């Protein structure tokens, strides 16, 4: 299998971690979707990463679909519960974490792609408000628990770790570690896992 993605995308990092935790081999094909010569549309008409090319050549996207697909490839380290209610809880955590990533990407594009005089401060502020609201919810739900859901790591923790890690990379001024020390405790624990340390994005 081949995973098309970038080294800095939090969505790509999420599925890379899932594959590593599942001990399923997948080749990473690095692609810059913003480059003029990008060929991502040949695999995903939406022009987004990650995109998984299966052994039979079928393209699978987006990150939530790929993560769920990968979890079913091996019985090792079950990351999504089979019980319907618990499954929904883990997937809701993932949706919340992905929402942080969505808002962060939109805010970053507004700041980096538009000329300064065309940038919308209210638009960026709206995205920042979404991020702060999601962080508050995450911290409140996590409380003093060791993991986001249940008594072991799940896709919920992976998604949260990728979301807050992306904030550290692109929005260090948010300082969520000081505001929400329980999220930082979880993140530091996740960083001890080879899957997280191997996929840390380059700082440049």
Description:
- This protein has 204 residues and is of the alpha+beta class.
- It has two domains: 2-71, Glutaredoxin (3-Layer(aba) Sandwich), CATH 3.40.30.10; 84-195, Glutathione S-transferase Yfyf (Class Pi), Chain A, domain 2, CATH 1.20.1050.
- Helices cover 53% and strands 6% of the residues.
- The chain has helices spanning 10-22, 63-71, 84-113, 121-142, 155-170, 176-179, 181-191, 194-197, and strands at 2-5, 27-30, 51-53, 59-60.
- Strands 2-1-3-4 form a four-stranded mixed sheet.
- The protein is globular, with a radius of gyration of 17 Å.
- 37% of the residues are buried.
- The model has no long low-confidence stretch (mean pLDDT 96).
- Residues 83-204 form the GST C-terminal domain.
- Keywords: Transferase.
- This is Glutathione S-transferase.
Write the layout of secondary structure elements.
Elements: E1 2-5, H1 10-22, E2 27-30, E3 51-53, E4 59-60, H2 63-71, H3 84-113, H4 121-142, H5 155-170, H6 176-179, H7 181-191, H8 194-197
GO biological process, one term: translational elongation
GO molecular function, one term: transferase activity
Protein name: Glutathione S-transferase
